[in-house]
Amino acid sequence: MMFKKNENLKKGYIDEIIDPSIDIKSEIERMRKEKNVIILAHYYQTGDIQDIADFVGDSLALSRQAAKANADIILFAGVHFMAETAKLLAPGKKVLIPDLNAGCSLADSCPADEFEKFVNDNKGHTVITYVNSTAEIKALTDIVCTSSNAFKIVESLPEDEKIIFAPDRNLGNYIKSKVKRDMLIWNGACHVHEAFSLEAIVKLKKENSSAKIIVHPECELPVRIVADFIGSTGQLLAYVKKDNADIYIVGTESGIIHQMKKECPDKSFIPAPPTDSTCGCNDCNFMKLITLEKIYKTIKYEAPEVIMDESIMERAARPIIRMLEISDRLGI
Ligand code: 13P
């Protein structure tokens, strides 16, 4: 049967029922060897996907992997801006994402036309943009950052340098509170990290007095205030590995707990509860659109592919490459 690419991709992913007799994991394994595919997965992916990936990491580590990938095809198990970043760093490679609907509420909170006006209205500012943004926003940016290096990148700039920081207001305000720089902060946020309930976290802490509260800097100020440690997903993982507590309340998307349990099987990890206890909103609905089944179909048909506007690619890649250069220089 001929595969009609466009028809099957109408929904943003390959819409085809998989033969139930197929062993999806071994087929993925076979096809990725045959086609020289590398699978990169973010810590927010489900455990089954993390377990079959060639590399699991945070946004910074995944960017580095994409830049040096020795493969013909990169399959990105994560959200759209991450796959786009991989394409910008590996423009000669085919980059696949299993579901084009895997967006990001934070990236959506910064529309390119409004941001361009904001930048033009505030000339003379260095534009630092969090990687959770579209390529159009990156094309208006001087330096990209991730949550692993944002603080050090801002701190590396001269004290009198004026900065625009976008799009995450919580990460921006967290850095601003630590570095005393003139920073104009875009008013964007991640729906997962703003969903955590301070009251429920404090209650959990009372019930588990030896627990440490560890959170991502995209969380709101009251949640950051009660935290014992604040860091990117990679930094949270490194922290629980070296710290001596035996129980942690984890204030970020729950996918990271899979790696924490793998690395520290004797410790306990409690997902920080959201305000609405019925919503499951500490799971990112976009991240969880990626499934093993979609990965199988994506490798099989080499679609959906991340296709970007050539005119934007060079301008959007420049600030990401600058981020990697600064991070290497600073030893991050
Ligand atoms: P890191 O990968 O830098 O931890 O950030 C994850 C993220 O996208 C939070 O929304």
Walkthrough of the structure:
This protein has about 325 residues and is of the alpha/beta class. It folds into three domains: about 100 residues, 3-Layer(aba) Sandwich (Rossmann fold); about 100 residues, NadA-like (Rossmann fold, 3-Layer(aba) Sandwich), CATH 3.40.50; about 70 residues, Rossmann fold, CATH 3.40.50. It contains 16 helices and twelve strands. It has a four-stranded parallel β-sheet, sandwiched between helices. Strands 6-5-7-8 form a four-stranded parallel β-sheet. The protein has a four-stranded parallel β-sheet with strand order 10-9-11-12, sandwiched between helices. Helix 4 packs parallel to helix 5. It binds 1,3-dihydroxyacetonephosphate. The site of 1,3-dihydroxyacetonephosphate has 11 residues, from loops.
Describe the structure in brief.
By secondary structure, this protein is an alpha/beta fold. The chain has 16 helices and twelve strands.
Question: Secondary-structure map with pairings?
Answer:
Layout: H1 5-8, H2 24-35, E1 37-42, H3 47-52, E2 55-57, H4 59-68, E3 73-77, H5 80-89, E4 94-96, H6 105-108, H7 112-121, E5 126-130, H8 135-138, E6 143-145, H9 150-156, E7 163-166, H10 169-179, E8 183-185, H11 198-207, E9 212-215, H12 221-225, E10 229-230, H13 233-242, E11 247-251, H14 256-263, E12 268-271, H15 292-301, H16 310-330
Parallel strand pairs: 1-2, 1-3, 3-4, 5-6, 5-7, 7-8, 9-10, 9-11, 11-12
Features:
14% strand, 4-stranded parallel sheet, single chain, Rossmann fold, binds 1,3-dihydroxyacetonephosphate, alpha/beta, 332 residues
